[in-house]
C-alpha cells in the first residue's frame, strides 16, 4: 500500500470516528464561525453540518450565553490552554433534549464542556474546539441523591403527625433564638399551648379522632403565624411557638387570636363533629433570664396557670426573677 493510500485510509478513519463518537465536537474560527459540526451535534440540534458551516454560532443559536462563552474562548486563546465547565455551574451550553432512557424525565441534556485551542504548525491559534459531554445520567443521579438527602434531613426535623418541627428541632430553634437575643437584644416571645381535656377526647372517641384534632390544631397554628415564626410539637397534645421580633403584648395578641380561632372551629372526623379549646402560656425573653430552659419553664408555668384558672384562656408570665438570696 502506497503512502498516499495509507494517508487516505487514516483520514477516512478519522472522519468516521469524529462522526460516530458520542461527544459533541464544534470547531470555531476566531470570528466564531462554525468550521466543524460532527454527527453528535447534528443529531441533537437537528442542523446538518452543511447547514451550519461557515455560519456564526451566535446567529445560529441566539439563546447561547454569548458574553460568557466569548470570555471563556478569549481566555483559551490568550493563555493557549484548555478550559473546562461543569454542569453543576452551568447545566448546559446547547439546550438539547434529553434522549437518555434511564433519565428520560430530565428537562434537558446536562453537559460538561471542554474548550481546547487548536494550534497551527507555526504555533498560532486560529481555531478552538468545543467538546460537549452528555452527563445527564450522572447529573440526574447526583440531583436525585441530593433531593433524597434533603428529604431525609427534613424528615429528621419534622413531626410525622403534624408536619411541624419535632421536639428536637424545635428545641434547637429555641436555643438559637436565646443566643440571638443575648447577642442582639431583639424582642422574642414564646407561646406554649396545650389541648384542653384531650384525654377525654381520646377516651371517648378513640386515638384516630384524637390524631385528627392534633392535625387540625397544627393546621390552625400554621395559618395563624408568620413565615419567620417557629411552631413545633413539643409532645403529645402540647405545642410550642417561638415568635422572633415580638414583645409580650404582640405575643399575647397572637395567642388570643389563635385561642379564639380554635374555640370557634370544628373538627370533622369519622362522621363526628368535635369542638375543642386550648390553654396558652406566654413568656417574653429578658436579660434576667439565665438559660433557654428557664424561658421555657416560664411559658410552661403560664400555661399551667391558664389550665388552673379554668382553661381556654391566655396567661402571660411576668418577667423572670431570680430566687431571693437568703441572708
From TrEMBL:
InterPro entries: Diguanylate_Cyclase, GGDEF_dom, Nucleotide_cyclase, PAS, PAS-like_dom_sf, PAS_4, Rev_trsase/Diguanyl_cyclase. SUPFAM superfamilies: Nucleotide cyclase, PYP-like sensor domain (PAS domain). It is an enzyme of class 2 (transferase). NCBIfam families: GGDEF, sensory_box. Pfam families: GGDEF (PF00990), PAS_4 (PF08448). Its EC number is 2.7.7.65. This is diguanylate cyclase. Residues 186-319 form the GGDEF domain. It catalyses: 2 GTP = 3',3'-c-di-GMP + 2 diphosphate. The lineage of its organism: Bacteria, Pseudomonadati, Pseudomonadota, Gammaproteobacteria, Aeromonadales.
Amino acid at each position: 500500500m502506497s503512502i498516499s493510500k495509507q494517508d487516505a485510509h487514516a483520514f477516512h478513519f478519522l472522519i468516521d470516528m469524529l462522526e460516530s463518537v458520542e461527544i459533541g465536537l464544534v470547531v470555531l474560527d476566531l470570528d466564531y464561525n462554525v468550521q466543524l459540526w460532527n454527527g453528535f451535534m447534528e443529531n441533537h440540534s437537528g442542523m446538518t453540518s452543511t447547514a451550519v458551516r461557515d455560519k456564526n454560532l451566535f446567529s445560529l443559536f441566539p439563546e447561547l450565553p454569548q458574553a460568557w462563552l466569548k470570555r471563556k474562548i478569549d481566555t483559551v486563546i490568550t493563555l493557549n490552554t484548555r478550559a473546562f465547565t461543569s454542569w453543576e455551574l452551568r447545566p448546559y451550553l446547547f439546550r438539547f433534549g434529553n434522549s437518555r432512557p434511564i433519565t428520560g424525565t430530565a428537562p434537558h441534556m446536562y453537559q460538561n464542556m471542554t474548550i481546547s485551542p487548536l494550534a497551527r504548525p507555526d504555533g498560532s491559534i486560529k481555531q478552538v474546539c468545543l467538546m460537549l459531554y452528555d452527563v445527564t445520567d450522572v447529573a440526574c443521579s447526583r440531583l436525585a441523591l441530593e433531593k433524597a438527602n434533603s428529604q431525609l434531613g427534613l424528615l429528621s426535623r419534622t413531626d410525622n403527625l403534624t408536619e411541624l418541627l419535632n421536639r428536637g428541632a424545635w428545641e434547637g430553634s429555641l436555643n438559637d433564638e436565646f443566643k440571638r437575643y443575648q447577642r442582639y437584644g431583639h424582642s422574642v416571645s414564646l407561646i406554649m399551648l396545650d389541648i384542653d381535656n384531650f384525654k377525654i377526647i381520646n377516651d371517648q372517641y378513640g386515638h384516630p379522632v384524637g390524631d385528627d384534632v392534633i392535625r387540625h390544631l397544627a393546621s390552625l397554628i400554621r395559618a395563624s403565624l408568620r413565615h419567620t415564626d417557629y411552631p413545633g410539637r413539643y409532645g403529645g397534645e402540647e405545642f410550642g411557638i417561638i415568635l422572633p421580633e415580638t414583645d409580650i403584648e404582640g405575643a399575647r395578641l397572637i395567642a388570643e387570636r389563635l385561642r379564639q380561632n380554635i374555640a370557634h372551629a370544628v373538627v370533622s372526623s369519622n362522621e363526628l363533629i368535635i369542638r375543642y379549646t386550648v390553654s396558652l402560656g406566654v413568656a417574653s425573653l429578658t436579660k434576667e433570664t439565665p438559660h433557654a430552659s428557664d424561658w421555657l419553664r416560664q411559658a410552661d408555668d403560664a400555661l399551667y396557670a391558664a389550665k388552673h384558672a379554668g382553661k381556654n384562656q391566655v396567661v402571660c408570665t411576668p418577667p423572670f426573677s431570680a430566687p431571693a438570696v437568703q441572708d
